[in-house]
Amino acid sequence: MNAVLIGMKHSGKSTLGAALAARWQCPFHDVDRLIESTYECDAQERLTVRELLTHHGDQRFREVEGQVVCELYLRLCGSERRNVISLGGRTALNEAVSQLLPDIGTLVYLDVPAEELFARIERRGLPPFLQGEDPFGQFLALCRERQPHFERLAELVVRLAGTDEQEATALISDRLEEHWNARE
After folding, report:
1. Could you give all domains of the chain from N- to C-terminal order, each with its CATH number?
2. Which one, of 23, 11, 20, lies nearest residue 32 by Cα?
3. What pTM did the predictor assign?
4. How far apart are CA 65 and CA 32, in angstroms?
5. To the nearest 5 percent, what fractions of the chain are helix, strand and coil?
6. Tens of pLDDT along the chain (184 residues)?
């Protein structure tokens, strides 16, 4: 059974996904890294996810993202081996691919309070879309807009307020194991 982590930017999808895969000794697939490598192979140009969005726009980004998710779908559907997949902050909201996600694995929404997320974002530097007069207000509005979508898509919601990496990894693992055992 595969675990697909969804949530807001800086909710820990990549970090916790890697930790979860290490705990389970299974493959880890980070969609943002796969987007970067797929774009680099196609365009012969190395860009980060943020640079791809900035330089080539949302439509081109969505095309590459769709390609990556379709490839994961084809590779992982019905896989006997467990996998952990972390999606980008907007991937689950991409209508073109969101219907494939439940077939890839159990969607787990990593729910972290907006204040905690914003503090993490500030430490790394505000992205261009949050550099207006009220960055926190903009981010809060974005959270309020996306949260219902994440909750609707997720089979499992894991609240991670105030947890460190070890606690969060154990909590996600326990909740998933419990969820999967209840389905058998």
Report:
1. 3-183 (3.40.50.300)
2. 11
3. 0.93
4. 8
5. 65, 10, 25
6. 899 999 998 999 999 999 999 999 999 999 999 999 999 999 899 999 889 988 998 899 999 999 999 999 999 988 889 999 999 888 888 888 888 999 999 999 999 999 999 999 888 877 767 777 888 999 999 999 999 999 999 999 999 999 999 999 999 999 999 999 998 6
